[in-house]
Fold this protein.
Amino acid sequence: AFGRVFDAVTDPLVGNWSDKCKSRLGRRIPFLRWSALPLGLVFVLVFCAPVSAVSSLNTIWLFITVIAYYFLITCYCTPYTSLLAELPHNQEEKLKLSMCISLTFIVGTCVGYAAPIIWGIFIGNGMARIPAMRITFAILSGLATVFMLVPAFGINEKDYCNAQPSSSNMFSSLGKTFKNKDFRTFVGQDIIYWFGLAMFQTGLPFFVTSLLHLPEAWTTYMMGGLTFLSLIYYPFVSKMTAKWGKKKLLIAAFIGFVLTFGFTALSGEKLGFIPITLQAVIIVLLGSFPQAIFGIIPQTIVADIALSDQIVTGESRSGMFYAARTF
């Protein structure tokens, strides 16, 4: 819990550091290069407590490594997402880049969820459970670090943007960010979205077992179905955005989630005239399209607001806008 609070505090701090960076490599790339390798190392150290028993030393070890993990992932992710406002030169590029980020996030998450399968193979070959888990995390960390280094060394930031570093300190920049009316409106809906989504995803096992009276394995099937279908919708979201605009699509997504949550609340005996398995399928069908919209559109809206603010104020602070959203 302390790690999450620390993470929230460091978001605007790192966002401000990135906005003020005067490196010849740009404002974002130096952070990506500096944090990737330490982040990969610290991730492994979290799972390598020094004492093989209950120990206060392990508690201290975990406290320090988890705090370091949150700090380093902020140092990477905040400048990384800020590039979404600075690399593309039109809305089509911005949407495609956002779609790629969302898609690779899902792929990476799926790879992460394969961890039990990987350490199960090691255990099946005679390795003890704890070493098998540590080796698995080391493998995943190495893979992640390689991919983190790709944009760090593969992108020449100066080729795409040449924004002047911000001169505002953290508190001043954060205050200016929240003074932006459009950003406050966006953050309001963003909080509502994440609150609702977290409740739905956290409660899904309960909906499956207690309302639909299906085996727990159906939780995995439904989550997989939601993810798979939302990926299929991704190309259509880009085309619909060009035709109808982002605002209308977001409103449609909220309506879609209202229908999804409403149907889920009534699922089970109250909708007994619909076969139970069909009810599960309907929940997946209703929820996948709005999930696709929210996977792409919101982060491009932050980019739009940051660029609009830059035009009005003459100060480029996209790092702080993304940090404030995460905060």
About this structure: The chain has a mean pLDDT of 89. The chain is about 80% helix and 0% strand. The two ends are 15 Å apart (CA to CA). Residues 119 and 131 are 9 Å apart (CA to CA).
